[in-house]
Amino acid sequence: MNETTVLDSATIQSLLEEERWFEASKTFREKANTNNSSLYDMAAHNREEFWATMAEGLDWYEKWRTVLEWNPPYAKWFVGGKLNASYNCLDRHVKNGMRNKAAIIWEGEPGDQRTLTYWDMYREVNKFANCLKRLGVQKGDRVAFYMPMIPELAIGMLACARLGAVHSVVFGGFSPEALRDRINDAQATVLVTADGGYRRGNLLPLKHDADLALRETPSIEHVIIVKRGDFPLHVKEGRDHWYHRLMQEADAYCEPEPMEAEDMLYILYTSGTTGKPKGIVHTTGGYLTGVYATTKYVFDLKPEDVFWCTADIGWVTGHSYIVYGPMANGATQIMYEGSPDWPDRDRFWELVEKYGVTIFYTAPTAIRAFMKWGDEWPAKHDLHTLRLLGSVGEPINPEAWTWYHEYIGGNRCPIVDTWWQTETGSIMITPLPGVTRLKPGSATIPFPGVDADIFSEDGTRVDTGGGYLVVKSPWPSMLRGIYGDPERFKQQYWSKYEGIYFTGDGAKRDENDYFWLLGRVDDVMNVSGHRISTMEVESALVDHESTAESAVVGIHHDVKGQAIAAFVTLKEGYEADGKLEKKLKDHVVQKIGVIARPEKIIFSADLPKTRSGKIMRRLLRDIAEGKALGDTTTLADASVVEKLKRTYEEEYSA
Ligand code: 7RM
User: Fold this and answer.
1) From the CA of 16, how far away is ligand 1's center (Å)?
2) Closest CA to ligand 1's atom 17
3) pLDDT digit string (tens) for 603-622?
4) What is the DSSP secondary structure assignment for residue 419, as one 8-state letter?
5) At the top level of CATH, which class does the domain 85-257 belong to?
6) The domain over range 524-652 is classified in CATH as 3.30.300.30
7) Residue 609: beta bridge partners?
8) Does the reported pTM lie above 0.85?
């Protein structure tokens, strides 16, 4: 790594350079689902034909007439085609000799276990679809879910898909207000919840919280309660139904509804920068094609694999890479209810060993926590079954990448750093592990058929260096809109460049045409006219032996416009003092250059994160500029930022 690049205030400067290459072993490449350039070549030759070939991996009742109709910003894929997502995830496997293959190996936080085969899932989904039907749910109706990580969540979603009902899953850690707003926006008629769930040994009283939301959700006619534990709750006669009671009386088979490819499959809310959450809309044929193809080729998924995506199903990662992608591929997977540090910091590695996990997909925030906790936790377990690792959710800095590669992957497993969004539906920029050589910290190149590019402010292509990440052509799993808000859809994603999807992320392209994600463009700092990405300064800090995690923000500075403030979480055993502060500043200067020297370093035991684990720099900016805190409702733990604010004020008011 060294200092680079000329200054260009129109784009984002890229200052860090990573020079190491990694490649999958010869055996891995020989056995990989794809190990040459054929998919890239096919897509480069004819993108639509490539996606049509991918769609042929699904079962269709009727084949499409037209692959793509594109009226920017509205795309229709596989027009005229008919299919059912639940059929593709279940029936076809049951019919093809996989009836007794494990679909979901589930473990609860307290240690309880269940294994559901494809036949079990098929039977449960059919019955639950009949329960929903009996309560009046029809094609197109919205069904909300507010659930812990238990198999019934996947069962419920697939039951909706079977009927053609639209699911809207609200993460179980959200507040009653957040649930209420999302139910009302979608006008859901049924809510599926549970008595509760376990998190770090505590009980999440889901039905109790749902009841608070239900005071102000007039569209809800029925509530279904799954019994997870023995959590006290109130049952409202007529409205509330126990899942197990309904299931006792349900018929065993429910004919899957043949859906138009463009019929809605689900809505998933994602919090935008301003207040009101956006209901991202995904449809059936294109979405399923995207998640099916990426699961198969990015994760190199084989029938014998044990796949574990650690995300909660309440996020898009769980929708695409627990429910639809792996199940459309007939995968065997692990589903775990709880947190990685309960009862101890090796819970994940215990599970990997116990179930012989072969493919492990998690987020950088988790990897940095593992680093902070120390190598001794994974070292207690035999992780030799792992053959492929994945990362998603934030840029993974080279230091964390290297740690993951060595201590979890035993220097043996390729790492797929997968860039995508709720809006993109499936993975967009990623290595194919049997084909693409890896550089730690780079998500490498676009998946075949994905027309991603980097633009400068005026819409010209950035050949090498930093700019805005865009997608120039439609792709099958792209969002079809924001539920009930076409104006916001256009404004948010399609107004920066005509007919081109704007991701909101910054990225740079290196001399090998590799993409490096630089974080949200709203977070980019401007120091003396130089646009510097948060990610690169954070990477330089985490590169220091003492630092586990960091978040940097630009704060007002009379002379420079902005100065850099860095929040730093130290690894176990390091002391926060003035000496270390100076060392860290010098380290950034040495790695990047004097331009990136942080003005302030603020040591903090925790950083404010969203409930899906992404650092919220906006709030750190408020703290460092001494302002009142902005909206904190999407935080995982609001006390972190309150505490940080108090410490900061004490320190800097003196
Ligand atoms: C899957 C998911 C989307 C935002 C996205 C980025 C960031 C996600 C990566 C990443 C760098 C990655 N959906 N992001 N993956 N940044 N490298 N591999 O996270 O809708 O919740 O978030 O997450 O900023 O725009 S999401």
Assistant:
1) 20
2) 395
3) 998 898 988 889 989 889 98
4) B
5) alpha beta
6) yes
7) 615
8) yes
